[in-house]
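quick one
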Amino acid sequence: MVDYIARDGVALLQVNNPPVNALSHHVRVAIEEGLKKAGQDPRIKSIVISGKGSFIAGADIKDVSKPTILELCDLIESSGKPVVAAIKGFALGGGHEIAISCHYRIAHEKSKFGFPEVDIGILPAAGGTQRFPRLVGLEAALDLIPSGRHIGAAQAFKLGIVDKVVRGDAVEEAVKFAKSIAGEPLVDRRTSQRPVMGAENAFLAAAVKLAMKKKKGMIAPIVCLSVSFMGSLLPFEQGIQVEAAEAVVVFTSGQMGALQYAFFAQRAAPKWLLPCGASFKTVKGRPIRNAAVIGAGTMGTGITMAMLNAGIPVTLVEQDRKFLDKGVSLLKLLYAGSVSLRKITQDQCDAILSKLNTAVGYKSLTNVDLVIEAVYENMALKKQIFAELDRICPPETFLWTNTSALDIDEIASATRRPDKVLGTHFFVPAYHMKLLENVRGKLTSAETVASAQMFGTRIGKIPVVVGNCHGFVGNRMLHKYVYEADFLIEEGCWPEDVDMVAENFGLPLGPFKVRDLSGLDIRVRGLLEQAKAAGIEINPATRFLNGERISLLSKSLVDKGHCGRKTGRGFYNYGKPGGKIPLNDRFIKDVIVEYCAERGIERRKVAYQEIEERLFLPLINEGFKILEEGIASKPEDIDTIWLLGYAWPRHTGGPMYYANMVGLDKIYNRICHYNELHKHSAHWQPSLLLKKLAASKTPMKDWMEVAQASSKL
Ligand SMILES: CCC/C=C/C(=O)SCCNC(=O)CCNC(=O)[C@H](O)C(C)(C)COP(=O)([O-])OP(=O)([O-])OC[C@H]1O[C@@H](n2cnc3c(N)ncnc32)[C@H](O)[C@@H]1OP(=O)([O-])[O-]
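structure w/ (2E)-Hexenoyl-CoA:
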């Protein structure tokens, strides 16, 4: 676990604990033994700590509750022989704390430093909250500790974290350096003995404000701030006591479990398993050498950028030169923005754009591995495109569709290769959002699924395989939340009441602010299309569609020209078209009151708890139905989709984890309660799986066994 190599008076302790050299209990013990051995050996004059491959990515997350890294850090710092950290790859969390306890740090130019502890609900409680401000000053510490941000070697050097940045082998350089400083005094190299530079109140207020915005609802960042600040006013030993006391607060808050679950869920979600038994372990994907995207609108250009950024040559295709040129201009504008923000250099931008081709019509697509169609949501149009692509593209070309809800099997039926057809549901903006829902149809082959997952990872996404149903996983659950939000308004809430509850729960924006942003007319169009498909003519009095309660409140607003931010008014008043600040509006309230009066709906005061339950319980109930039907193969997939695609508050783990945390019996009983009251909303009919899990008190890790056993009955 830790190799001990003695050479020319230097003891090299090299951590060897793949995949990320996490500080498991065994590693900590081995480092301690190595330090003691080197300390006692008179031939050893100095020590180097490094990691095989990378440095150390932190504590073993499954083992963080035993913080003996603190003792290790003290042992390193108090060593009578100089200790040098040789850093390649990542020095994160406990690894970073080990590094700053060493007397010197030599880092490779590509190494990264950070305290990601806050993102898994804990503190750098191995003395990090006390040593780091003493090393870099309070202002930088109050920025880096609560943000969890990684920084590169160059910035680490500027801040004084690193003593030397090297291009070559950091370990060799560190060994050479360690030899050169043998016997030198270490007093001023012990970080804990330094005073904190710039201990000023002003930094604290600004940092708290920023943390509350960026890490909304999370306890650890705020605790980190107060502990680091308090420690800066105290001697180091007392600061350590404050750190230890406050660490208990975060360890027992419940957020630690949720955030660590989210960390592992995100890594488990790309590991797919199909009902036929094929999985990421048994089937290999085909790499994508080049691709085409059909449609140069917002989605098409975004998907094109995601592929170009990963070095995949793309042909962007439109039927009309005018639309194509518009899409390419948008794409170039976005890259120019990245250059001016210094996210990429002009040379990098040129290299990326050199991989972009354009075409009018599909004729040139005779040599592509993959086509992703990204035209607007219209089944007839998509089928027509797929039929044509099927004729033109080689038989082995994958044909994938970017849709957020449409039936993948029906699209595939337009081709002679349904096994190669799959849905790639990207989220807006597609070049930025991490989530990719890969939707398998009835006939999609395991090789296609494997290729789509491999492709997703290559373009920097977290790809999650889901089954085919209306809205797939994310939007299917979202629809229930959106319905209930509307019903709450009909029954007596104002938009701001509902938004406040959703935002207090941890979502960045409530459902009505989101609707104003995306446009009310889009939802109304969807509703009207649904009605048309069901052969129903909507009139002002309509309250049911296919036996289900619906709300036409959005339609009433759209009919009055309230389409959201773009028209300056939606559920809120924005002052002007394109305005950004939502203001409550008497006129909108009058529209709501009139709408209810016309339909004989009696408005009432709706309690906070009811708003919260009616927003989130239907969505959770739908999640259990999704598991029951095999649309998702594990709860981690659903939670990852909601964390990454819908900004679900991470410190509650995701909707499935949250349900488990609250207690499935409680969740089930409340759903039954609302089901009694709202018989005309199928989303309140409790999931059978939820009922079984609640009754059996099955732990979350075993839910799928119950789901699979039930599906076999
Ligand atoms: C009082 C205590 C004070 C100190 C606290 C701490 O240090 S808290 C810790 C502070 N540190 C952090 O929070 C750092 C967390 N880690 C990271 O941010 C990233 O892993 C990375 C940037 C190091 C590498 O990214 P990458 O994309 O190259 O790789 P990847 O992310 O896919 O991971 C590969 C595999 O390693 C696994 N695994 C990873 N880390 C840990 C861990 N600490 N533990 C256990 N396991 C870990 C991961 O699950 C995956 O397993 P799988 O699925 O293959 O079975």
